[in-house]
């Protein structure tokens, strides 16, 4: 039977999904609460991983090993790396990379993980297509993009650092967990998808009250995740 792991880095990113689920059990492992139950008539495990790549990778491996999830969805927020992506829009991952992996001193390109066969982790194509269609239907007031998500254990606010990421990765947005989830899923041969609501413009030309952004972002991602589960 299919079981879907749903990861959010922060409690705000998963709390409404938890409220909507039929909760059967809570299991505490590695300081994380794994909520087992049903959402949109699917078996799910919903969990707050905590912020950063290590937390995200540990959380993903636990979902695979202990709860035997068959697919993983990661929902949260990210910063835009393209001017056409506005605050509140949704980016759906085509693939994911880590922008803070830097072994250039050994001759590797920026972002390439030494001695791995790949450093680019493709999302599940069927999930990508369905998620894009669903988002355009349930969230018609915003734009939906499909593109690369890059992650690092850094909050990117410096314009020079942002330019380095834009120039080297051709990414759509940057955040702190998605690529770690993607790499863990890839190594375990588990399909994954990253969903990100955009919190700021690439050129910092527009701003929104964060409380208002958060309310809209949660509404849009909950609409997407719950309807996506119905369709898969």
TrEMBL record:
GO MF annotations in UniProt: adenosylhomocysteine nucleosidase activity; methylthioadenosine nucleosidase activity
A GO BP annotation: L-methionine salvage from methylthioadenosine
GO cellular component: cytosol
EC number per UniProt: 3.2.2.9
SUPFAM superfamilies: Purine and uridine phosphorylases
Enzyme type, top EC level: hydrolase
Keyword vocabulary terms for this entry: Amino-acid biosynthesis, Hydrolase, Methionine biosynthesis
Gene3D superfamilies, alphabetized: Nucleoside phosphorylase domain
Residues annotated as domain Nucleoside phosphorylase: 4-230
PANTHER family assigned to the protein according to its UniProt record, in alphabetical order: 5'-METHYLTHIOADENOSINE/S-ADENOSYLHOMOCYSTEINE NUCLEOSIDASE (PTHR46832), 5'-METHYLTHIOADENOSINE_S-ADENOSYLHOMOCYSTEINE NUCLEOSIDASE (PTHR46832:SF1)
NCBIfam families: MTA_SAH-Nsdase, PRK05584.1
Protein name according to UniProt: adenosylhomocysteine nucleosidase
């Amino acid at each position: 039977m299919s079981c879907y792991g749903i990861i959010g880095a922060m409690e705000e990113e998963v709390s409404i999904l938890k409220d909507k689920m039929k909760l059967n059990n809570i299991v505490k492992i590695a300081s994380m609460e794994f909520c087992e139950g049903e959402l949109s008539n699917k078996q799910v495990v919903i969990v707050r991983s905590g912020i950063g790549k290590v937390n995200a990778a540990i959380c993903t491996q636990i979902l695979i090993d202990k709860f035997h999830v068959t697919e993983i969805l990661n929902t949260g927020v990210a910063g835009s790396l393209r001017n056409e992506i506005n605050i509140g829009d949704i980016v759906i991952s085509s693939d994911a990379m880590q922008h803070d992996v830097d072994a250039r001193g050994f001759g590797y390109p920026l972002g390439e993980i030494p001695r791995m066969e790949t450093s680019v982790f493709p999302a599940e194509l069927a999930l990508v297509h369905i998620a894009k269609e669903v988002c355009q239907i349930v969230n018609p007031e915003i734009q939906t993009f499909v593109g690369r998500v890059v992650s690092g254990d850094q909050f990117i606010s410096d314009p020079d650092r942002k330019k380095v990421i834009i120039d080297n990765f051709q990414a759509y947005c940057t955040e702190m967990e998605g690529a770690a989830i993607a790499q863990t899923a890839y190594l375990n041969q588990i399909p994954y998808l990253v969903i990100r609501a955009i919190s700021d413009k690439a050129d910092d030309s527009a701003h929104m009250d964060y409380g208002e952004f958060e309310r809209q972002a949660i509404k849009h991602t909950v609409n997407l995740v719950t309807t996506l589960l119905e369709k898969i």
